[in-house]
Structure to design on (828 residues):
């Protein structure tokens, strides 16, 4: 009996272990499904990009990609089933969990095995193709040199006879080039789009988008003329230009008539009889409809017909959502060699820089076009047969964002202006503000949003929506936007870039009025002094709301006395080690935002800091790469309306300013950001007296050792970021008093030992980011009382502890972070 009892006890123990294992597996089923969906969403676009890259793949590689693509789609559907499954259906969840394990293993095996072999094969092909291409280039160069030997090519002086003389002979290759201009930099795009068009039924609606003048229409017309495409569709291709103000009903009838003609063997008149039954056609005849120059999503939705066998190509400057398009190809700008080839063809009638020409000057002009085909062709045509002095003047005018001549203004800037005319007035004004920043420089997103909120009376959410709209219309580009739009993301590590032609357009549109009447006064490029046009008109007040200055070192005597009674934004860009703040700041009574950015390699010493005391309405202050001088309490009046202060790459020595009273200087401050201020070891204790502070970001400050002991007095604080502060070992005890704190970011604080046991005092806390904090081994028990906590981002080592707390915190989502090493901030 004893043996039987022991045997039964062992069986019961094993059954209990098995039950616990099954229960744990089913409990973690839904988080695993969410993680699987994230993995698939990251991997599937890459697989599709490889499949439709335009590169011919072997049968075995294509089979492997198709197999993993199907597995990813099946895995996505499986994860959706898991998320929709009832948590109490243990048996079903267990079965789904096992299936997910198989999918995850299959994905892992592919990534670690065949995908690596694909990479090695691609590297090998690139090496072989590069070697062959160099051989062809060398042979072509020898033939060209032989043909050019008999040509009379010279350089004109100032006689006006033309800079380069016409060639006595034309190379055969150039005659071919004249009839096949598309080959300049567009062959890759042609292959990619053609593969999408000839692919299976999965890709029904295909988008081609890009900046205005990038060659979208040229590309799609060439594809429609391609022999393989015409053969596949048996010449049943319809090209429709939609335009900005289309007659939608007329276009619909045209498309319906085309489908009717295909369906009923040429009887287009029948189209009106089946206009409402097109979705039910049983035709399998392949047809292609190209919708060119589409400007509106509602219009596009009315012009897409779900006819079996029909594919639609949408050509637009706008990025339409994936809910409408099955695939999208974004047209890339030309590389330097292709840009030079296209420019030379337009300017000289040949594909390369003529012998004896000023190569540096030509490359400088080409560089101003930034690879935009329309700009290369228009500017090249404007400079054809012009003397050298005209070319140099044109280069200088381009540097100042001014048109070269009437044809440049009409054919390029006015054509690009179509994209702007279609915007609402508020969005158009926001676009024009982008011209206030230097060319080829990233624009900090936080700066942009601050300016827009101050100038256009909008909140940050609307400003961000405008930013997304401009990005979708290819009028700007978001850089480092992986966290953009997140409620607690910091905007200063996200930036915006813009093509120089679009910047020139913004400056051109803002400079139509006289300099005293303009809403935006912008120095288009760096100069050593204030523009002469400004000096000549300094006797009258300037009515600009935005003033943007870009200079080198400026002393007090270099500035001109000017009056700006309506200026609300001042942007000071410079590159020097010393900078005297302009005295005319005193004549800006309405100034609300001040941006000061030093592009020099050295941190600049600021002078005349006391002039800021006159800015009674200042609300936003942005300093970058400057030394913050001693702030004299008696001579600097309180900035009573200042709400935001951002200090980036600044030198701040607060040890010599122990008497600094921040609550006196900034009584209404709500946001304070300090990033890469590497010499700052402590925060002034007076910061705890700024009771209005709601957001505090102390990031990438490698010397910071501790936060003030009275930190708990910041009772209104909602956001606290102290990430990448390696010497910070603990958070202050007063953190328990921060009852309104919603977000805390301590990521990359590699020496931070623990979360405070008093963390439960922050009962409004909704999100914790603690990735790359290797010293935090255990979590405080009090964390289970954070009832408002909804999201935690952490390393895998501590993720299981947070997941165990999900029983007490049912709304908690635990996100395991991937390691990320980012040095993008060093590129400037």
């Amino acid at each position: 009996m004893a043996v039987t009892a022991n045997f039964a006890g062992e069986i019961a123990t094993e059954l209990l272990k098995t039950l616990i294992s099954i229960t744990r597996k089913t409990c973690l089923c839904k988080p695993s499904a969410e993680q699987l969906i994230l993995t698939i969403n990251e991997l599937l676009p890459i697989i599709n990009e490889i499949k439709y890259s335009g590169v011919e793949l072997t049968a075995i590689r294509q089979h492997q990609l198709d197999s993993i693509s199907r597995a990813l789609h099946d895995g996505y559907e499986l994860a959706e089933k898991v998320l929709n499954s009832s948590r109490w259906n243990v048996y079903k969840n267990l079965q789904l969990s096992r299936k997910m394990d198989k999918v995850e293993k299959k994905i892992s095996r592919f990534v670690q095995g065949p995908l690596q072999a694909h990479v090695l094969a691609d590297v090998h092909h690139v090496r072989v193709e590069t070697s062959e291409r160099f051989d062809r280039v060398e042979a072509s160069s020898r033939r060209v040199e032989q043909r050019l030997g008999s040509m009379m090519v010279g350089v004109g002086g100032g006689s006006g006879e033309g800079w380069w003389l016409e060639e006595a002979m034309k190379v055969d290759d150039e005659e071919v080039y004249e009839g096949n201009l598309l080959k300049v930099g567009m062959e890759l795009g042609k292959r990619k789009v053609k593969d999408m068009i000839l692919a299976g039924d999965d890709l029904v609606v295909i988008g081609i988008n890009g900046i205005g003048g990038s060659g979208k229409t040229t590309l799609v017309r060439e594809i429609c003329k391609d022999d393989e495409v015409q053969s596949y569709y048996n010449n049943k291709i319809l090209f429709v230009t939609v335009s900005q103000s289309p007659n939608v009903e007329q276009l619909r009838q045209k498309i319906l008539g085309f489908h009717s003609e295909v369906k009923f063997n040429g009887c287009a008149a029948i189209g009106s009889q089946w206009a409402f039954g097109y979705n039910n056609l049983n035709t399998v005849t392949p047809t292609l409809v190209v919708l060119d120059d589409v400007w509106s999503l509602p219009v596009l939705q009315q012009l897409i017909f779900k006819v079996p066998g029909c594919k639609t190509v949408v050509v637009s400057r706008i990025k339409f959502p994936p809910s409408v398009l099955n695939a999208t190809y974004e047209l890339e700008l030309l590389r330097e060699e292709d840009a030079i080839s296209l420019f030379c063809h337009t300017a000289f009638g040949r594909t390369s820089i003529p012998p004896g020409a000023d190569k540096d000057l030509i490359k400088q002009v080409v560089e101003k076009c930034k690879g935009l085909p329309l700009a290369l062709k228009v500017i090249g045509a404007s400079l054809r047969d012009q003397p050298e002095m005209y070319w140099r003047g044109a280069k200088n005018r381009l540097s100042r964002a001014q048109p070269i001549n009437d044809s440049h203004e009409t054919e390029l800037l006015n054509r690009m202006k179509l994209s702007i005319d279609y915007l609402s007035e508020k969005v158009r004004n926001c676009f024009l503000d982008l011209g206030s920043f230097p060319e080829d420089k990233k624009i900090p997103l936080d700066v942009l949003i601050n300016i827009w909120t101050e100038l256009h009376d909008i909140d940050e959410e609307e400003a961000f929506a405008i930013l997304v709209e401009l990005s979708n219309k290819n009028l700007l580009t978001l850089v480092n936007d992986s966290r953009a739009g997140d409620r607690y993301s910091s905007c200063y590590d996200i930036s915006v870039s813009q093509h120089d032609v679009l910047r020139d357009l913004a400056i051109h549109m803002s400079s139509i009025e006289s300099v005293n009447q303009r809403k935006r006064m912008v120095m288009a490029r760096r100069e050593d002094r204030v523009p002469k046009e400004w000096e000549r008109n300094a006797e009258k007040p300037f009515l600009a709301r935005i003033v943007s200055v870009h200079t080198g070192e400026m002393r007090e005597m270099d500035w001109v006395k000017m009056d700006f009674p309506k200026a609300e934004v001042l942007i000071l860009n410079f590159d020097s080690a010393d900078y005297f703040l302009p005295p005319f700041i005193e004549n800006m009574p309405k100034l609300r935002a001040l941006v000061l950015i030093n592009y020099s390699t050295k941190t600049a010493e600021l002078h005349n800091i006391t002039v800021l005391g006159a800015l009674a309405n200042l609300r936003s202050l942005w300093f970058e790469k400057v030394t913050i001088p001693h702030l004299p309490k008696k001579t600097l009046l309180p900035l009573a309306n200042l709400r935001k202060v951002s200090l980036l790459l600044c030198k701040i020595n607060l040890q010599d300013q122990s008497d600094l009273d921040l609550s006196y200087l900034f009584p209404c401050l709500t946001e304070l950001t300090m990033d890469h201020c590497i010499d700052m070891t402590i925060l002034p204790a007076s910061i705890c007296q700024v009771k209005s502070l709601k957001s505090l970001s102390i990031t990438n400050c490698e010397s910071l050792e501790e936060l003030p002991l009275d930190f708990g007095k910041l009772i209104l604080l909602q956001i606290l970021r102290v990430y990448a502060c390696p010497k910070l070992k603990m958070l202050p005890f007063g953190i328990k008093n921060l009852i309104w704190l919603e977000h805390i970011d301590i990521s990359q604080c590699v020496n931070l030992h623990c979360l405070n046991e008093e963390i439960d005092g922050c009962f409004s806390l909704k999100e914790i980011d603690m990735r790359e904090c290797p010293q935090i081994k255990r979590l405080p028990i009090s964390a289970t009382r954070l009832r408002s906590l909804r999201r935690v981002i952490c390393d895998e080592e501590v993720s299981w502890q947070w997941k165990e707390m999900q029983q007490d915190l049912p709304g908690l989502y635990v996100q395991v972070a991937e390691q990320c090493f980012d040095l993008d901030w060093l590129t400037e």
